[in-house]
UniProtKB/TrEMBL annotation:
It comes from Lichenifustis flavocetrariae. The lineage of its organism: Bacteria, Pseudomonadati, Pseudomonadota, Alphaproteobacteria, Hyphomicrobiales. GO terms for molecular function: DNA binding; DNA strand exchange activity. Belongs to the site-specific recombinase resolvase family. Keywords: DNA integration, DNA recombination, DNA-binding. This is Recombinase family protein.
Amino acid sequence: MARIGYARVSTIDQDLDIQHAKLKAEGCSVIRAEKVSGGSRDGRTELATVLDFLRPGDELVVTRLDRLGRDTRDVLNLIHECEQRGAFVTVLDPHVSTRGEMGHIVLTVLGMVAQMERRFIKERQRDGIERAKGEGVYQGGKRRIDRERILALHSNGAGATTIAKAIGCSRMQVYRVLQS
Protein backbone atom coordinates (compact mmCIF):
# COMPACT_ATOMS: atom_id res chain seq x y z
CA MET A 1 0.00 0.00 0.00
CA ALA A 2 1.49 3.31 -1.14
CA ARG A 3 0.50 6.87 -0.26
CA ILE A 4 0.81 8.91 -3.44
CA GLY A 5 0.63 12.68 -3.22
CA TYR A 6 -0.67 14.96 -5.94
CA ALA A 7 -0.01 18.71 -5.87
CA ARG A 8 -1.30 21.27 -8.36
CA VAL A 9 -1.28 25.01 -8.84
CA SER A 10 -2.97 26.85 -11.69
CA THR A 11 -0.19 29.04 -13.05
CA ILE A 12 3.55 28.74 -13.53
CA ASP A 13 4.29 31.66 -11.21
CA GLN A 14 2.59 29.94 -8.25
CA ASP A 15 4.57 27.83 -5.79
CA LEU A 16 4.12 24.12 -5.04
CA ASP A 17 6.43 24.04 -1.99
CA ILE A 18 3.73 24.24 0.71
CA GLN A 19 1.68 21.43 -0.82
CA HIS A 20 4.80 19.35 -1.34
CA ALA A 21 5.85 19.80 2.30
CA LYS A 22 2.39 18.84 3.61
CA LEU A 23 2.24 15.73 1.42
CA LYS A 24 5.74 14.68 2.47
CA ALA A 25 4.82 15.19 6.15
CA GLU A 26 1.80 12.92 5.59
CA GLY A 27 4.13 10.12 4.52
CA CYS A 28 3.58 10.18 0.77
CA SER A 29 6.27 8.00 -0.79
CA VAL A 30 5.66 9.48 -4.25
CA ILE A 31 4.57 13.05 -4.97
CA ARG A 32 3.59 14.18 -8.45
CA ALA A 33 3.08 17.89 -9.09
CA GLU A 34 2.09 20.13 -11.97
CA LYS A 35 1.28 23.72 -12.82
CA VAL A 36 -1.93 23.63 -14.83
CA SER A 37 -5.54 24.76 -14.45
CA GLY A 38 -7.90 22.47 -12.55
CA GLY A 39 -10.87 23.46 -14.71
CA SER A 40 -10.55 20.25 -16.72
CA ARG A 41 -8.24 17.28 -17.13
CA ASP A 42 -6.69 18.67 -20.31
CA GLY A 43 -2.92 18.88 -20.01
CA ARG A 44 -2.82 17.26 -16.56
CA THR A 45 -0.27 14.59 -17.40
CA GLU A 46 0.94 14.14 -13.81
CA LEU A 47 -2.59 13.39 -12.63
CA ALA A 48 -2.96 10.85 -15.44
CA THR A 49 0.33 9.26 -14.35
CA VAL A 50 -0.89 9.01 -10.75
CA LEU A 51 -4.17 7.42 -11.83
CA ASP A 52 -2.34 4.90 -14.02
CA PHE A 53 0.03 4.04 -11.15
CA LEU A 54 -2.64 3.43 -8.47
CA ARG A 55 -2.93 -0.16 -7.25
CA PRO A 56 -5.45 -1.78 -4.89
CA GLY A 57 -4.94 -0.48 -1.35
CA ASP A 58 -3.04 2.64 -2.49
CA GLU A 59 -4.09 6.07 -1.33
CA LEU A 60 -4.15 9.26 -3.41
CA VAL A 61 -3.52 12.22 -1.08
CA VAL A 62 -4.19 15.89 -1.89
CA THR A 63 -3.91 18.92 0.38
CA ARG A 64 -7.34 20.28 -0.66
CA LEU A 65 -10.06 18.89 -2.88
CA ASP A 66 -9.78 21.75 -5.37
CA ARG A 67 -6.25 20.51 -6.14
CA LEU A 68 -7.93 17.49 -7.81
CA GLY A 69 -10.22 19.74 -9.84
CA ARG A 70 -12.73 22.55 -9.85
CA ASP A 71 -15.54 20.72 -11.59
CA THR A 72 -17.77 18.59 -9.35
CA ARG A 73 -18.43 15.93 -11.99
CA ASP A 74 -14.74 15.67 -12.84
CA VAL A 75 -13.73 15.35 -9.16
CA LEU A 76 -16.37 12.68 -8.56
CA ASN A 77 -15.22 10.83 -11.70
CA LEU A 78 -11.62 10.96 -10.45
CA ILE A 79 -12.69 9.55 -7.09
CA HIS A 80 -14.71 6.85 -8.87
CA GLU A 81 -11.70 5.91 -11.04
CA CYS A 82 -9.55 5.59 -7.93
CA GLU A 83 -12.14 3.35 -6.30
CA GLN A 84 -12.38 1.22 -9.45
CA ARG A 85 -8.67 0.56 -8.99
CA GLY A 86 -9.25 -0.37 -5.34
CA ALA A 87 -7.56 2.83 -4.13
CA PHE A 88 -8.72 5.52 -1.71
CA VAL A 89 -8.67 9.31 -1.90
CA THR A 90 -7.72 11.40 1.13
CA VAL A 91 -8.02 15.19 1.39
CA LEU A 92 -5.93 16.77 4.14
CA ASP A 93 -7.83 20.06 4.61
CA PRO A 94 -10.42 19.26 5.87
CA HIS A 95 -9.35 15.71 6.62
CA VAL A 96 -11.74 13.51 4.63
CA SER A 97 -11.22 10.07 3.13
CA THR A 98 -13.20 7.77 0.85
CA ARG A 99 -12.51 4.91 3.25
CA GLY A 100 -15.89 5.62 4.86
CA GLU A 101 -19.36 6.32 3.46
CA MET A 102 -19.55 9.74 5.12
CA GLY A 103 -16.37 10.71 3.27
CA HIS A 104 -18.18 10.36 -0.07
CA ILE A 105 -20.91 12.75 1.02
CA VAL A 106 -18.44 15.33 2.33
CA LEU A 107 -16.29 15.09 -0.81
CA THR A 108 -19.36 15.60 -3.02
CA VAL A 109 -20.27 18.76 -1.12
CA LEU A 110 -16.66 20.00 -1.22
CA GLY A 111 -16.57 19.33 -4.97
CA MET A 112 -19.67 21.47 -5.45
CA VAL A 113 -18.08 24.26 -3.40
CA ALA A 114 -14.90 24.10 -5.52
CA GLN A 115 -16.97 24.37 -8.70
CA MET A 116 -18.91 27.32 -7.31
CA GLU A 117 -15.64 29.00 -6.29
CA ARG A 118 -14.32 28.59 -9.86
CA ARG A 119 -17.47 30.30 -11.19
CA PHE A 120 -16.93 33.18 -8.76
CA ILE A 121 -13.31 33.53 -9.88
CA LYS A 122 -14.38 33.69 -13.54
CA GLU A 123 -17.09 36.22 -12.69
CA ARG A 124 -14.63 38.48 -10.84
CA GLN A 125 -12.18 38.17 -13.72
CA ARG A 126 -14.87 39.08 -16.24
CA ASP A 127 -15.95 42.07 -14.10
CA GLY A 128 -12.34 43.25 -13.84
CA ILE A 129 -11.85 43.02 -17.60
CA GLU A 130 -15.06 44.97 -18.25
CA ARG A 131 -13.99 47.67 -15.77
CA ALA A 132 -10.53 47.89 -17.37
CA LYS A 133 -12.09 48.13 -20.85
CA GLY A 134 -14.36 50.92 -19.59
CA GLU A 135 -11.32 52.81 -18.29
CA GLY A 136 -9.44 52.19 -21.54
CA VAL A 137 -6.58 50.30 -19.85
CA TYR A 138 -7.38 46.75 -20.96
CA GLN A 139 -4.54 45.34 -23.03
CA GLY A 140 -6.03 41.92 -23.69
CA GLY A 141 -4.53 38.56 -22.81
CA LYS A 142 -0.96 37.63 -23.60
CA ARG A 143 -0.46 36.05 -26.99
CA ARG A 144 0.48 32.44 -26.50
CA ILE A 145 1.53 31.79 -30.08
CA ASP A 146 4.25 33.52 -32.05
CA ARG A 147 2.14 34.57 -35.05
CA GLU A 148 5.05 36.18 -36.88
CA ARG A 149 7.07 32.97 -36.69
CA ILE A 150 4.12 30.96 -38.03
CA LEU A 151 3.79 33.34 -40.97
CA ALA A 152 7.54 33.28 -41.60
CA LEU A 153 7.69 29.48 -41.56
CA HIS A 154 4.66 29.33 -43.86
CA SER A 155 6.21 31.81 -46.31
CA ASN A 156 9.32 29.60 -46.37
CA GLY A 157 7.16 26.70 -47.53
CA ALA A 158 6.64 24.81 -44.25
CA GLY A 159 3.36 22.93 -43.88
CA ALA A 160 0.92 23.18 -40.98
CA THR A 161 2.19 20.00 -39.28
CA THR A 162 5.82 21.13 -39.43
CA ILE A 163 4.92 24.59 -38.17
CA ALA A 164 2.80 23.17 -35.32
CA LYS A 165 5.69 20.97 -34.17
CA ALA A 166 8.19 23.84 -34.38
CA ILE A 167 5.95 26.27 -32.47
CA GLY A 168 4.53 23.71 -30.03
CA CYS A 169 0.86 24.17 -30.86
CA SER A 170 -1.89 22.36 -32.74
CA ARG A 171 -2.36 22.43 -36.51
CA MET A 172 -5.76 24.04 -35.96
CA GLN A 173 -4.06 26.99 -34.25
CA VAL A 174 -1.68 27.28 -37.21
CA TYR A 175 -4.63 27.27 -39.64
CA ARG A 176 -6.38 29.99 -37.61
CA VAL A 177 -3.32 32.23 -37.73
CA LEU A 178 -2.87 31.66 -41.47
CA GLN A 179 -6.54 32.46 -42.15
CA SER A 180 -6.54 35.70 -40.14
